[in-house]
Amino acid sequence: MKKIFLFCLCCFYTFSAQAMKVDTDLINEMLTTLDENYLFEVDNAATVTAGMQILHDLDARFVISKGSDRIYIYHNGKITAIIPFPQDLNDTQTWSKNIVSTFEAAGKMSEKIALRDFELPDLMMKKMTESLDKFSHYYSQFDYREDEGKNAFHTLYADRMIDDVLYLRVRIFNKQTARKIKRSLKEYHNAKAIILDLRGNSGGIFNEALQTADLFTDGEIISFTAGRHNHHKHYYTSDENALYTGPLVILVDGNTASAAEVLAAGLQEQSRAKIIGTRTFGKGTIQNVLQMSNGGKVALTTQQFFTPSGKAIHNKGVTPDICTQYDHHDQCSPQPRADKQEDITTAVEFLHNNM
């Protein structure tokens, strides 16, 4: 038994002494992917610092701190490594070499880190993308969370008449949305006005939102997208044969986001609809999925939506024509109001007064 114990102990120390291997080219590919494709200019010093926090996540004895020209790595309260900023902050190759050297040094001090050396690039990429914005994500080839909830979108749609006004509630844009709205418009063709309730609508399929715009507009620009420095503009226009051209009100709130607020902003600026509610969420960006050489994927923010006149939606949202709730600063800030019946009443009264 003693011999077996000594043998295992020797194996353990032999394993621990093995040099840790992290792929420098892969780290460089990851940094370059973010640098070349992200919507805004990447602060490599801040992004790398965020990525290096995985050392602390794996072993709490490590602390990472960013200085004015270098990143400090502490272990048990003492500086054990320094990553100097390259002279050119966009020099991803130098960043990559310094990162790998730091990982290897950390692996010699921590068995927890050494045992997970194969995961370090993936874990670092997750940290870096999370630091960019809350919509960008990285998925390793072993991470199946990207499939989570892919079928979770469900139709939350309702229609009814309120006096002579057709009320349409859309909680998400899925593959059924435009078809259902079109059916309602035909069924209630005698309606004198329409309320499109997008409160609580987090977005969904943008093309469905665009097809919804087709039902209410005649060939107008609904939105356009552009990347960094407003390059590669792409315009989204509606069809030329609107199914309904009468009075239209759109209800929004602080949880109206993405495709829903792009639709609301487009119809508002084209003077096609009046917006009632509170300022929208302000999620006006597009994420593209990019394939990495290691089998991982990064969903990276690469473009953003603009209103027809060129106003950015992201982080600003859409300000309603009639605000139904002001904050203590007397601002129409994003407030959730999906369950407020009084907003519907306000919309009906507005329509009756302006038909």
Q: Could you give a short description of this structure?
A:
The protein is an alpha/beta fold and 355 residues long.
**CA radius of gyration:** 26 Å
What portion of residues is helical?
25-40%
Uncertain segments are 1-18, 144-155
Order of helices and strands: HHHHEEEHHHEEEHEHEEEHEEEEH
Biggest sheet strand order reads: 5-6-7-10-11-14
Distance between the termini: 93 Å
The tally of strands reads 14
Largest sheet: 6 strands, mixed
Strand content: 15-25%
What structural class do helix, strand and pairing data support?
alpha/beta
> Tally the helices: what do you get?
11
> Which outline best applies?
elongated
Task: Give a quick set of tags describing it.
single chain, 355 residues, alpha/beta, six-stranded mixed beta sheet, five-stranded antiparallel beta sheet, 21% strand, elongated, disordered N terminus
Structure report:
- The radius of gyration is 26 Å and the shape is elongated.
- Helix content is about 35%, strand content about 20%.
- The longest helix is centred in the N-terminal third of the chain and has 18 residues, at about 90-110.
- It is α/β, with parallel strands linked by helices.
- Helix 9 packs parallel to helix 10.
- Strands 5-6-7-10-11-14 form a six-stranded mixed beta sheet, with helices on both faces. Strands 4, 8, 9, 12 and 13 form a five-stranded antiparallel beta sheet that branches.
